[in-house]
Design a protein that fits this description.
mainly alpha; 235 residues
């Protein structure tokens, strides 16, 4: 098998998406559930605020909250990675022999003989000591490196797209109250995010999609129940 075949096969790995995919899926799911729950809760409470206004406000506030929260979270991860990188640079400068032995032990634990592990460690250290330690000791890879700005933008955009689904549902001319079309539109949206999540992560479609649908459905049901209680209590 040639190098080109290996390269093509490695493209099927999902790990290179971890720096932003989690934020995008989380944002879309939160946009769907948070916006739908907010609008259903208002509808169940028979509040006077127009549902569209409430939905737009929820989307705007949620998108900004998701973007800032995700940026800060992933930025913290990035700071940790950079701190570990600087620490490893210092270790290599102060104790290169000790770091070489540490790398040798890592390869021994992975199944190599002492002689082969020492040889591999020496070759890899001569080639790129820092990169080798970051990868084999700390598990840092360039394709999984934290991307704060990308994660924040992905969260905001996906939240907005997700939140637009129940908002569109509220505008559909369906009889039986506003809650029904919102629920229907949101369940369709959750079905979509579940399928996208499963396909992107390579996980089972049915299991992943059902998990998303059940979680989102529970969120809407609980919020609707609270809204109904508010209406009945006259608060």
């Amino acid at each position: 098998m040639g190098l080109e075949d290996v390269y093509i096969r490695n493209r099927h790995h999902k790990v290179h998406k971890s720096g932003w995919l989690r934020a995008a899926v989380l944002g879309a799911n939160d946009g769907l559930v948070a916006t739908a729950s907010l609008m259903i809760g208002v509808s169940a409470a028979k509040a006077s605020s127009p549902l569209v206004t409430v939905g737009l406000a929820g989307i705007a506030a949620g998108a900004m909250s998701m973007a800032v929260g995700e940026f800060i979270s992933v930025r913290s991860q990035s700071d940790i990675e950079e701190a570990d990188r600087q620490l490893e640079i210092a270790h290599l400068a102060s104790d290169p022999e000790g770091e070489l032995e540490e790398l040798t032990q890592i390869y021994i634990e992975r199944g190599l003989t002492r002689e082969l592990a020492a040889e591999v460690a020496s070759v890899m250290t001569a080639h790129d000591a820092l990169g080798t330690h970051l990868r084999d000791e700390l598990g840092q890879f360039e394709h999984t490196k934290a991307k704060p700005l990308q994660a924040g933008v992905a969260s905001a955009i996906s939240y907005t797209l997700g939140g637009a689904v129940p908002l569109i549902g509220a505008l559909l001319p369906i009889h039986g109250g506003k809650s029904l079309p919102i629920v229907i539109a949101t369940l369709v949206g959750l079905l979509g995010t579940g399928l996208i999540s499963a396909r992107s992560a390579g996980s089972p479609y049915i299991k992943t999609t059902l998990r998303v649908l059940i979680g989102g459905g529970l969120g809407m049901a609980i919020t609707a129940g609270i809204g109904g209680l508010v209406h009945l209590s006259g608060i």
